[in-house]
Amino acid sequence: MTAPRPATPPPTSLADRFIRRFNFVSYMAATLAMYAVAATALGIAAAPALWFLSSTIGWAASLPVWLAWPMFGTLIALAFFIAGFALLAVVPVYNFVMPTGVTRYKGQYYTIAALPWFLHNALFYLVRFTFLPFVTLTPFGIWFLKGMGMKMGKRPYINTELISDPQLITLGDDVVIGGSATIFAHYGGGGHLTIEPVEIHDRATIGLRATVMGDVIVGAGATILAHSVLLPGSRVGEGETWGGVPARPISREEMDRFKALIRREGAPAEVGLSSGAPDGDLSAG
Fold first, then answer.
1. Count of beta carbons in the 10 Å neighbourhood of residue 67
2. Is 41 left (phi over 0), alpha (psi -120 to 50) or beta?
3. Using CA atoms, how far apart are residues 186 and 170, in angstroms rounded to an integer?
4. Which backbone phi and psi does 263 adopt, to 5 degrees?
5. How far is CA 81 from the centre of its chain?
6. Residue 115: CA atoms inside 13 Å, Cβ hemisphere, count?
7. Residues above pLDDT 90, as percent of the chain
8. Residues 104 and 195 sit within 8 Å (Cβ to Cβ)
9. Which residues contact 147 (CB under 8 A, 6 or more apart)?
10. How far is CA 22 from CA 16, 113, 120, 193, 219, in A?
């Protein structure tokens, strides 16, 4: 039996009716408008880098040829980082002034209620796919995520830029997000979209390349093993270990048997330590 589709809320305005009826035209218009907005954000971020180049390129040209060309390259590289750090500041300002207040939603993709979600992620991706990998695991990356609305406690360890919907993601104290883990507060299919928050509580660990989807709560001190997938509706209890695709609870006895099997087959006993995870955890990276 096919599961029922989420009921879409009724139209709230004339604009909403237009979007629903002419969804392709509306989608194209929103996309082109977002490109224009992105161009202004990139332009503002590039301005200090261009000023820096214009102020230093003449000095570099006066150097001997054998030194001038390496200096040109260095100045261009420095300009790239100046523009990148400027973008980290510009995009949160855009996110603040534009209508990007993402809330829970269930229904069709093409409604005015989904527009804040579209804008918020479009702005976030402008940094995610350009400069965010250069500041992952640094305070600059943490400050940017907070600036985009992600709520987090003390001492977060975030080793991934594969994030969507930061406004709807909450991290507790001492949370560890492993390398290349994917976290997003939405899911969809068949023309329908669901937006639901993600909560990861104190001292929880999300393993290397694990996936956390919308409408997931991970309890304090819980561990999600590497490459696992937490489907919507998952509720991981405090201190529990989950793993697999889809992820399921794994008892301490099952984990002990797994570790014993690894050692018996000749793998190094320190298999969990090689990832850099705290306390030899098998999950994070």
1. 10
2. alpha
3. 14
4. -70, -40
5. 21
6. 17
7. 75
8. yes
9. 88, 89, 91, 92, 95
10. 10, 15, 22, 18, 43
Question: Which tokens hold the place of 158?
Answer: 């975030």
Least confident residue range of 125-129, 212-216, 262-266: 262-266
Q: What is residue 282's predicted lDDT score, i.e. its pLDDT?
A: 55
- Thinking of the domain 150-285, which architecture would CATH place it in? 3 Solenoid (2.160)
Alpha-carbon dihedral 51, 54, 59, 61, rounded to 10 degrees: 150
Q: Structure pTM?
A: 0.87
Query: What 3-state DSSP class applies to 55?
Result: helix
Radius of gyration of the chain, Cα coordinates, nearest whole angstrom: 23
Structural contact between residues 38 and 126, judged by C-beta atoms closer than 8 angstroms:
yes
Name the DSSP letter for residue 168. Answer: G
pLDDT digits (tens, 9 = 90+) for 131-185: 999 999 999 999 999 999 999 999 999 999 999 999 999 999 999 999 999 999 9
Q: What one-letter code names the amino acid at 113?
A: A
- Hunting for tokens 């329908």 — which residue is that? 192
Is residue 14 within 8 Å of 99, Cβ to Cβ? no
pLDDT of residue 139: 96
Choose the weakest-confidence range: 155-159, 208-212, 249-253, 277-281. Answer: 277-281
Its sign, for the CA torsion 111, 113, 118, 119, is positive
User: 185 with 198: CB under 8 angstroms?
Assistant: yes
Helix boundaries (H) for 114-205: 115-128, 139-147
Q: Which helix (H) or strand (E) holds 19?
A: helix 14-21
Delimit the domains of the chain by residue range: 12-149, 150-285
Q: How many helices (H) and strands (E) does the chain have?
A: 6, 17
